[in-house]
Specification:
It contains 13 helices and 7 strands. It is α/β, with parallel strands linked by helices and about 325 residues long. The relative contact order is 0.21. The structure holds cytidine-5'-monophosphate.
């Protein structure tokens, strides 16, 4: 690449990882904890526009659990679920930001730019307090995994009090709701109910498990090797979610900038290359596809860690 300014190589493969990460990826591939049934017939050469079209037409984005949804409607849970879909509280927006949590956000000075968007999505326990200069202050939506919801502070911390909350849990591949309800990865439903009782006015949704596996299928169908049979990372799920409620989505430090670091999160002193390259999640492959769909320049990635994706309303298939 020109001037040694290397950005994400869209043909990254597990064989290009170091020994430790490569082994972790192979282990997860063999495991199949969620009962994924899929043949590997990946076609690695679809163009960015073709990929955008697939995500638009083959993924029910923003599909959430509503109070009337069978067979959950007879459970106490359903009385706490929203009656309406996510779009009744979210969007449509013109311009949106997805803030990845990566360590490379440190010293990025991207805060003002991030806040200039109409809506900002953040992940899990990512704070703004103390990091405003680099990540901004606005939180319109926070995507939470069930592991974070299982932490002690989830019910009490003010970290979660702004914006719309959206939760997900790695469900069985079948996306069968009762199977999932009876065997979640983490106690998403009990924690959801506790949080809703404590904060009844804050909009809080749970993603339908079919969403994560439809996104997973898009990845496997477009990669020429078997990917981890685990759900996609929050990063890609949040990006696809925002693409369905925004005209344009800017994703920050998902494809690492020149600030690329082994620091896992901008808010924690913990170093692990797996945070950026993936071990449990098929993150490596997610990044290959996002690189191909990017409408911005390599320079934007290199300098600002910024990727620009069209919202699905702007994609003609
Ligand atoms: O770790 P966590 O899931 O909370 O981070 C949010 C998302 O940001 C991840 O799911 C991943 O997609 C992305 N991320 C990344 N590189 C990092 C840390 C996070 O791409 N170093």
């Amino acid at each position: 690449s020109p001037n040694g300014r290397t950005v994400w190589n869209e043909n990254m493969s597990s064989s290009m990882l170091g020994t430790r990460l490569r082994k972790a990826v192979l282990n997860y591939q063999a495991m199949n904890k969620y009962g994924v049934e899929s043949s590997v017939s990946g076609q690695a050469n679809r163009s960015g526009p073709e990929l955008l079209c697939q995500f638009k037409t083959k993924v029910d984005a923003v599909s959430t659990l509503t109070s009337d949804l069978q067979p959950l409607a007879s459970l106490t849970l359903s009385t706490l679920l929203p009656p309406n879909p996510l779009t009744s509280d979210l969007g449509p927006y013109r311009s949106c930001a997805v803030v990845s949590s990566a360590g490379s956000l440190r010293h990025s000075a991207l805060g003002k730019e991030i806040d200039s968007h109409d809506a900002v999505l953040r992940f899990n326990a990512a704070p703004t307090a103390g990091y405003e200069r680099d990540v901004g202050t606005k939180t319109t939506v926070r995507l939470l995994n069930s592991q974070v919801m299982d932490e002690q502070r989830f019910l009490s911390s003010s970290l979660y009090s702004s914006g719309v909350l959206v939760a997900w849990d790695p469900a069985p591949f079948s996306a069968d709701l009762m199977q999932w309800y009876n065997r979640t990865d983490y106690p998403i439903f009990s924690q959801y109910q506790r949080y809703r009782r404590l904060h009844p006015l804050q909009p809080f949704y749970i993603l339908h498990p079919r969403f994560q596996w439809q996104v997973w299928r898009r990845i496997q169908d477009n990669i020429g090797e078997p990917i981890q049979r685990n759900p996609p990372s929050s990063g890609l799920l949040g990006t696809v979610l925002m693409m369905s409620v925004c005209d344009v989505v800017h994703v920050y430090e998902f494809l690492p900038s020149r600030r690329k670091t082994e620091l896992c999160h901008y808010y924690q002193r913990f170093y692990d290359a797996a945070c950026t390259l993936g071990a449990y999640h098929p993150l490596l492959y997610e990044k290959n596809l996002v690189k191909r769909m990017n409408r911005g320049t390599d320079r934007d990635i290199y300098n600002h860690g910024r990727v620009t994706l069209p919202g699905f309303s702007q994609v003609n298939c």
